[in-house]
């Protein structure tokens, strides 16, 4: 049973015809038949059909590509191609087979995480454009939590095991820890549980706010309670 939607219902379409075949082959040859996102290289012998190499048009496929447009074409394997077309039903769940991070030297057009949501730090909720500025906390008991580099450094400073972290390329623990001061001391209100650790306060002001009883006030719940109390006091005083 063929689960792929009919071509006319697909949001992303494959090229066809002699001209596209020539352009596609030229792109594959230029890229040494290697996925530019993850580094997978297709051998001459038959392999997994779901790992076939495809050519991604970074300008949006129009069916009009020519040899003059090679600069906008990039070779990717099917799982990595699926990460670039999350709304295309033809790829189904193939993106799950792609690595979480692109390789460090991936072209910018394909240097993305597996999903768009994985460009949001799960500790501070900040959006990060480049995958090379992200890290992932992958504890041994399961789960994957994407973090910006400063928040990853904050967790390392808080005592998390460096062996549980991944990045695009080689993990440099010292470099991540050096970014810790750029992370907020307190995680965002809706931060994911396993990465909600506080960054150890470093400056005098941070220690005043987070190492003294003031920490019970200087947080979203404490401020809300304070405003309520002030409102109640003013209502009695004014009326």
Describe the protein in words.
The protein is α+β, with helices and mostly antiparallel strands and 239 residues long. The protein has 3 domains: 108 residues, no CATH class; 84 residues, no CATH class; 38 residues. 26% of the residues lie in helices and 9% in strands. The chain has 6 helices and 5 strands; from the N terminus they run H-E-E-H-E-E-H-E-H-H-H. The strands form 2 sheets. It has a 3-stranded antiparallel β-sheet. A two-stranded antiparallel sheet has the order 1-2. Strand 3 and strand 4 form a beta hairpin. It is elongated and about 85 Å long. It starts with 17 loop residues before the first helix and ends with a helix. The N terminus is likely disordered.
- Helix-and-strand structural type: alpha+beta
Give the overall pLDDT as a whole number.
Answer: 83
Distance between the termini: 75 Å
The helix/strand series, from N terminus to C terminus, equals HEEHEEHEHHH
What percentage of the residues does DSSP assign to strands (E)? 5-15%
The figure for the number of domains is 3
Keywords summarizing the entry:
239 residues; alpha+beta; 3 domains; three-stranded antiparallel sheet; two-stranded antiparallel ribbon; 6 helices; 26% helix; 9% strand; elongated
